[in-house]
Amino acid sequence: MTNNYRVVVHFDGTEYYGWQFQTAEYPTIQAEMIRALKIIAKKQVLVTGSSRTDAGVHSSGLTANFHLPVAIEPDSLRRALNSLLPRDIRIMECELMDKAFNARFGAVSKTYVYHIFTGQVQSPFNQRFALHVPFPLDLKSMRRAVRHFVGQKDFSSFTSDEPGKKRLREVDLFTMRVKNEEITLTVRGKSFLRYMVRNMVGTLIDVGRGKIAAGDIPAIFAAKDRRRAGQTAPAKGLMLVKVEYGQEETGNSGK
After folding, report:
1. pTM above 0.85, yes or no
2. Which of the following is catalytic: 12, 54, 138, 172?
3. Which domains are delineated in the chain?
């Protein structure tokens, strides 16, 4: 008999090659979780994550689940994991779930935030978490461009995913907030293609710099050609902030 736990993981992704386990020489968040759980469970434990984040991407909301052969009180398990994980990875929430809960397949939406700092001098306290763009951007054009990304579309021009993968995705929210020298872009959808959010952001930056016109975005979608869109924005500005589940997935077996 096993017990299924859900955890919410915060991490600074700067030193990691993303979430997904790779070979031993490439540190990943999943690998660190597996290592810590093996010490606790005395056996290898499969850890399922809600998202496969890119190298350098951060999280304040990635959700994962795993089954343990022993029953451990969730708060005790959270403390044990945090004592074994590196300081740049922290388990913020831990709860016992129904055995059917799956962090990957149960997710109904994921929200990412991308931070851009436009001042001339960037503080060392946020340089790991925001892209520095120290030149003028046409914010009005960027706002006009944002709306073209919302809806169900073929995102072939905004991904480097494998050719055979289905490219149809739906973005149900894309907002741009400007406060002083900070631009915050928020994107929400059920699933995303490889580099999709970073390519969308990079294209918006190119719109802001006058390299791409806001009105050209529909034609870029129609071309289904990655070369037509803008740059790939660096990973460090991107953070997965929230993963949402349907009502049937939020039931706690301890209730």
Report:
1. yes
2. 54
3. 3-105 (3.30.70.580), 108-241 (3.30.70.660)
